[in-house]
Amino acid sequence: MRDKLFFRYFTYLDNLFRKIDRKHIRRTRNIQFIPGFPNRRGGKLSYAEWAHVIGIFQTLFYHIIPKKSGNQVLDIGCGTGLLGIAVEPFTKEGGSYIGLDVMPYEIEFNKKHYSQNNFSFVHFDLSNPSYVTTQSDELKPWPVESNSKDLICALSVWTHLREEDSLFYFKEVQRVLKPGGKAMISFFYLDDEYKKSLNIRENKTGRYHASGQKKWIFDKAAYDSKNWFCPEWVDTPEDAIGINKEAFQKLLSTSGLKLNKYYPGNWKEIPGLYFQDVLVFEK
User: Fold this and answer.
1) Alpha-carbon torsion, ordered 253, 259, 265, 269, to 10 deg
2) Could you tell me which residue, 204 or 118, shows the higher pLDDT?
């Protein structure tokens, strides 16, 4: 009962704050689309954190997209539109944005919330053990034309994909991008910086352990994979999946994409662009 009252009270205050705040927006008009508290998801509930992350990725898009307007954008795992808000300025003057997600209620919310004529949202019928288990288990192409997108973005999507799904949809990125197009994808990348963050010491089982932060230790095989891992605490591997260097090279070699930029995340206990590792690829 107390939690319900707090939720209602906080939602009321949040709605009141956003109504007043929108009247004072001067130079970053796209943040007017930040949803209310009940619809801010994706591991970020705070209004301030949504605004902060939108700013991070709007800046990143500015630096990685050659054109500053008219871009055709595909957002995989769009959630309730965080990256859609960040990329909105770059879709003006003939561009478009498609948000794709496996969660039907997220898509329905987005269709009502975002009023831009060049924005569209599509439900993708695919199961994932961490999100929805009642949909299709068949891996199938995205309902998007080949060689059609200037930018593909996916925030915290490949961190929930097992090896088979990860490889299949990484090839979909290559298929959908225009030649020279960019893809911004976040990972838990288990590279040398990751190993340093563990204060490495190897026990008899060959697993890495840390004396400090233990939540983000990917030392359990995701299903029977040799290169895709998850932490011990997960209920299902798709709750949090990290990839090692061999997995990363496999993604590149099977897709033909090239790594363009790499921004290590602050989950590795170092200053970072964002929480997860952010990698930019080019076709």
Assistant:
1) 70
2) 118
